[in-house]
Structure to design on (522 residues):
């Protein structure tokens, strides 16, 4: 009988995994085949199944056979991973660090500002048993339910892995280094117990989760569900490649849990804020967002940091802030988040700076505080309007994965004060995005659209091919509110190294922090 399939944390089929089925005195041995399938001659009954494979952690599974469908056995590869739970905490609240390491490890907590600052040395972690610092993954599709690390065998009251969130809000990183010399790092969003500054910054933590494929699913691969058979070769097996251009669900994908490691948030141990960001996703995740937060500290702007989750659940006190900044890649938005921000800007004088690209392209819903369900891209069925109605610009695919500088359109506008830039000049010639180099207008680009407010002032235009560059705009509302949008994911990645991008951003932020209404035009 086909008992099930064996796969790793990416849902890639594992061949030659050893399995032992025990039922009383009965013992049956089997090995997984090339597609991960497990065939065994078993009588109906309850079994204790043991799985083992070189390079992976072993585990036991209690199972009554036959099941209604083949079992998806999941094994976790050896290595070093971790995350903190919850991933966003209020100052003074406790959280749990969850580490997977084949060896004893040393842990420390760092605050990521203009420089990395050691906050707390947490010491070495180990236990008496062999491989006692490793974790296991649940069987089945744990992208929907979470990996639930620190659950099996972590009941000791003397060996708790908890930490209190620091007093100061900001982006923190855990550094993990084990006895084999391996290094891993992962972020922690620390939010203020109460506002401490006039500027609030919103992380893109929902975007991190939507793109996170740990477990074999994200909103970009296996969106509907894990396929019945684990992946052997992605480009022949996955709908992303076999049905290109086709969204694999009509309305919503399957749930995605935040309770998973996020490998793309890794920052190398020796990396500094002015180093290029290597790889595919790091530029759009916390490593990219660090560049803006560090720049704020370098320029002397105090800020409080919040997760997008807090905004949805009404726990960001917008009226106590003068400015809210969207950072790098705020692609995902709920109806409640969007309409709440729009009311703040249009009715209560809020000032929004969107230093990001692909703004609010995708709608999603919270199933609970730690689980989301994404809806089809480029649809606004819930909020019933284009993101351009709030941000002044909206994403289009033109210019995707190109990088270029901006050209000044309105050189006499106050946003360019002190830059020595005039109409027609170029700025933003570099960014730290190693995936999409070429300039501050890069990777994912938002442009003025027919839905943009009529009062939009067009400040600059990215010089990407075929007039596809990002539009930098500003507009004001009758309530005293204002919106400044740059339309590019690469913009915050240029802040630490480009004087023009830095000066323009500082000019707008300082003006938005003034209590009087900003001027209506240049």
């Amino acid at each position: 009988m086909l008992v099930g399939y064996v796969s790793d944390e990416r849902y890639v089929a594992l061949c030659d995994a050893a399995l032992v089925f025990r039922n009383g005195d009965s013992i049956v041995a089997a090995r997984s085949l090339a597609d991960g399938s497990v065939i065994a001659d078993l009588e109906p009954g309850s079994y204790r199944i043991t799985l083992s494979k070189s390079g992976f952690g072993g585990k036991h599974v209690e199972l009554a056979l036959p099941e209604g469908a083949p079992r998806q056995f999941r094994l976790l590869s050896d290595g070093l991973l971790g995350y903190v739970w919850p991933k966003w905490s209020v100052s003074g609240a406790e959280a749990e660090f969850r580490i997977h390491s084949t060896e004893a490890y040393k842990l420390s907590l760092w605050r990521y500002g203009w420089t990395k600052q050691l906050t707390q040395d947490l010491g070495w972690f180990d236990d008496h048993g062999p491989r006692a610092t490793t974790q296991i993954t649940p069987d089945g599709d744990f992208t929907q339910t979470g990996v639930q690390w620190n659950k099996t065998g972590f009941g000791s009251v003397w060996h708790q892995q908890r930490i209190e969130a620091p007093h100061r809000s900001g982006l923190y990183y855990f550094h993990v280094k084990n006895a084999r010399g391996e290094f891993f790092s992962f972020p922690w969003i620390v939010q203020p117990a109460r506002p401490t500054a006039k500027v609030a910054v919103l992380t893109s933590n929902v975007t991190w989760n939507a793109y996170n494929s740990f477990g074999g699913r994200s909103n970009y691969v296996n969106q509907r569900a894990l396929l019945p058979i684990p992946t052997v070769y992605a480009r022949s097996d996955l709908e992303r490649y076999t049905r290109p251009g086709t969204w694999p669900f009509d309305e919503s994908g399957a749930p995605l849990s935040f309770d998973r490691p996020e490998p793309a948030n890794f920052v190398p141990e020796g990396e500094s804020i002015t180093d290029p960001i290597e790889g595919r996703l790091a530029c759009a995740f916390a490593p990219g967002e660090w560049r803006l937060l560090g720049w704020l500290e370098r320029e002397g702007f105090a800020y409080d940091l919040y997760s997008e989750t807090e905004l949805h659940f009404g726990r960001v006190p917008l009226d106590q802030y003068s400015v809210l900044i969207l950072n790098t890649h705020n692609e995902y938005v709920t109806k409640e988040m969007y309409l709440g921000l729009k009311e703040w800007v249009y009715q209560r004088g809020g000032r929004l700076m969107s230093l990001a690209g692909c703004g609010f392209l995708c709608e999603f819903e919270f199933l609970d505080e730690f689980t989301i369900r994404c809806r089809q891209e480029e649809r606004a069925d819930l909020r019933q309007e284009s993101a351009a109605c709030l941000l002044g610009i909206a994403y289009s695919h033109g210019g995707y994965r190109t990088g270029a500088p901006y050209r000044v359109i309105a050189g006499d506008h106050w946003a360019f004060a002190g830059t020595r830039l005039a109409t027609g000049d170029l700025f933003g010639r570099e960014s730290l995005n190693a995936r999409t180099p070429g300039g501050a207008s890069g990777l994912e680009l938002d442009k003025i659209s027919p839905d943009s407010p009529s009062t939009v002032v067009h400040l600059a235009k990215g010089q990407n091919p075929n007039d596809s560059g990002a539009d930098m705009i500003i507009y004001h509302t009758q309530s005293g509110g204002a919106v400044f949008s740059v339309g590019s994911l690469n913009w915050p990645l240029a802040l630490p190294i480009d004087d023009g991008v830095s000066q323009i951003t500082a000019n707008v932020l300082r003006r938005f922090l003034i209590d009087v209404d900003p001027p209506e035009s240049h």
